Amino acid sequence: MLVAYEQLVDIPYPHVAMRLERLFPALDTMASGAFSNERLAEVRLGPGAGQPKLAKQVQLRWSVPIVDDDRWMVSLAWSATGTAAIFPRMEADLSAIARESEQTLIRFRGNYEPPLGPIGDALDRVGFHHVAEGTVENFITRVVEHLERLQRLPDQA
């Protein structure tokens, strides 16, 4: 199932690109360890604002960023820890894209396969897809809040 979310930030792309490399270890004080071309952390994700009540601990993996003059992108994946078989695994691209203005577009495009075969497909159609959408929206909102917080700090590039 496809899930996507976009949000504009009033921060110029060069500043966003520099900050995104440091973003993931800062979210939820994730413990990050680098290995090969991938990074790994654990974080709680779920739908809703802030620290959602309906959240699950997930293992978050992301690639080394691809960066050029107007786009920053990582491939990422998350999967539930513990009872992973009953939760979908998300695979996505997270991008920051320069705009002609002093804004940057933060874009999430992902896919997940509902667990539990046909039963999971039916549950997803009934409403679990909204949980996935809410989780992605919450994730991107937290990314944007982090970027905006860094924008307000003195001596930040």
List the helices and strands and how they pair.
Blueprint: E1 2-9, H1 13-20, H2 23-26, E2 33-35, E3 38-45, E4 56-63, E5 66-67, E6 71-80, E7 90-98, E8 104-112, H3 117-152
Antiparallel strand pairs: 1-8, 2-3, 3-4, 4-6, 5-6, 6-7, 7-8
Count of β-strands: 8
Q: How would you state the average pLDDT, rounded?
A: 76
Query: What general outline do the C-alpha atoms trace?
Result: elongated
Distance between the termini: 37 Å
Rg for CA atoms: 16 Å
CATH topology value: Alpha-D-Glucose-1,6-Bisphosphate, Chain A, domain 4
Question: Would you write up a description of this structure?
Answer:
There is one protein chain. The chain is α+β, with helices and mostly antiparallel strands and 157 residues long. The chain has a single domain, classed as 2-Layer Sandwich (Alpha-D-Glucose-1,6-Bisphosphate, Chain A, domain 4), CATH 3.30.530. It is 31% helix and 36% strand. It has three helices and eight strands. Strands 1, 2, 3, 4, 5, 6, 7 and 8 form an eight-stranded antiparallel beta sheet that branches. Strand 5 and strand 6 form a beta hairpin. The chain is elongated, with a radius of gyration of 16 Å. The N and C termini lie far apart (37 Å). About 10% of the residues have low confidence.
Task: Give short descriptive properties of this protein.
157 residues; alpha+beta; Alpha-D-Glucose-1,6-Bisphosphate, Chain A, domain 4; eight-stranded antiparallel sheet; 3 helices; 8 strands; 36% strand; elongated
